[in-house]
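Fold these two proteins, one after the other.
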Amino acid sequence: MAIYHCSIKIISRSSGRSAIGASAYRAGEKLLDKETGIEHDYTKKQGIVHSQIMLPIHAPREYKDRQTLWSEVQKIESASNAQLAREFEIALPKELNLPQSRTLIQNFCRDLVKEGMCVDLAIHDKGDGNRHAHIMATTRAIKENGQWATKEKKDYARDENGERIPLIDPTTGKQKVDSRNRKQWKRITTEANDWNKREKVEQWRENWAKHYNRYLKTHNVQIDHRSYKRQGIEKIPTIHEGYTARAMERNGKTSDRCQINRDIAQLPRIEQEKNLLETLKDKIIQSLENVYERLREYHTRRTADAGNRAIRERELRTSEPSRRMEKESFIPRERTQNIKQPLSNQSRTAPEPPERGKKSENSRERSFGLSR
């Protein structure tokens, strides 16, 4: 996996640092700081696989010696807050072996040398997958005559028409003059180069990405010097761990920096789980809304039915008195009972059955009539 790391920092005297000491540490050499009398001995430092000095064409050849170069730098940079060197810390690709990595970083250093810088290059590799380069570059350029160039220069301040701006005496309202009666003009200090500008730093970072991508094009690996935010990528970048953090991890301890990167590596999985939970949440909310909607419809129907029943009951209660009055006003006709007269004792006596073989007169009459 390609990782972009190109950190650019200033080594300054105001922070208590020394160009001699920084160079000795990165190159694994023993150098004497003549300014402080301190000898910086890092000859026992492990993991330094390459170091060299790269100079512009017009630089003195004695600057090839690391001790001489940085001693001259500290001599010319005499201010208490002077910038002694500019350091580039660059991660080298894992896809390349050491000779290929060396060629890649040397090509990048040559671009810095073309701008007039003296470059001190060191490559560190302890075999732990953290191969990287340290580049210390001078903050002054070398002129064609082999002398150090100035960092700043004085110039006249000019108005929008390009005319010099006079210095006005507030008491007289006239232009100031010096002791020799020469007119005074407003002066400004400008930098001799653009090395301290943010745009220049951006250009160096972009240039490293171009070298990297050009060299690893056949490996199908590319990097981008811009942040994820500037690329429009919604992703949290990892942080630089460094040797100390990784040494802690190897010794069984937990480094905060390494733990942060592990947490960042888990973010995609956590994001997927979050999206899944959001999807489930939306489904649950939609299901609940459907249930509530059906309940509302049910209660609406019940309310309507109850209202209709109440109306019918009121109508019934209203019409009941009229029906009662109608019922009371209707008198049914008395029926004449069909009272049978009591039979006499003679009639109550059952008739004697006719003798066998004899028929009654009526039966004989009926049979006679029928026979006729």
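Now the second one:
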Amino acid sequence: MKLKLAFAYDSAYPWFNGGIEKRRFLIMQALANAGHEVHCFTMLREGMPSKEFSYKGIRYHCCGVAIPNSKMYVHGRRNIRWPLKYALMLPFKLIKYDNFDLIDADAFPFLHLFTISLIAKLKRIRFIVTWHEVWSLEYWQRYLGKVGGVVGYFVEYLASKLTKDFISNSNETAKRLYEEFGKKSIVFPAAVSSYEFDARHVKKKDQFISIGRLVPEKRMDMVLRAIAESDASAKIIGIGPEEKNLKALAKDLGIEKRIKFIRRLSPKRLFTSIKESRGLLMFSAREGLSLITLEAMMLGVPVFIVGSTSLPSDVKKLCITLDEKSLGKSINEVLKNYREYEEKAKKARQVVLERYSADYALQVYEKFLK
């Protein structure tokens, strides 16, 4: 049976290269390749050919123009104008199309879920919300302050009441969703696709790589301090409000010649940069599933974490934990005995391809339609 499926989020891969966006793209592509009609409702970004177009078998519909990446954050927090604009414009675009079998929307930042819920009820469409993180009241208050945090948590709580159908990107997220709001969900990581794997050999460099938004929670400062204590170099790939501070720190540590900051890369060049590195340094204190972690594993590259890295427990088991108190020494040990870590990476790759493939998408969505 051919299905008509809609996906909704305010940004889309490859025009915005984030983990949530990449995960959704892999799912949509897998479904389109299986012969289903797949639509994506997003916002117009630089590089997109028009407001209505098809790409890789997916039909894109743009609800207004997204604000520039440079204005994505205000005082270190996500700019509310972007999701608010999307939430207000989305229903006018969505209502124009014939009924879908289901609509899947990523949860955060929640505002769009209320307008989608209205259209879904009006047209009697199955509405699924996919959760990547679940924030507690305490976390909201650290992020937005005492009063703002209460408002943010209340919006998240209300969003959990809009449907009975949920997907979680990991077992950890599913557990948090149940503990915080009493909602059960289907766990569907969908982090990688075997078609992306390029078997061509890339010569290794004595460098490490760290990839993510340049915000405090990603702890790129820890990466810089670790490199300063070691003999290695590193690439840091990402954009965000901490960019200037991180470059200043690299200079203060005397490692500016060993650190290369890159704001963004094409998917092909990104994968090449990962493959030529000795490992991915993932020290982030705030992660959901962490797509880039699993992509590095898919490419056969070791992923190094510290004990306090925030990752789902089943993903952490596939990583290599470094001593947080002597990171420089640990990194030098990796350089010295790299073959040992490379063998561990090969085993992790096999697990990732078996457990985290987007190729199972149809099986997951069929469960909601039975």
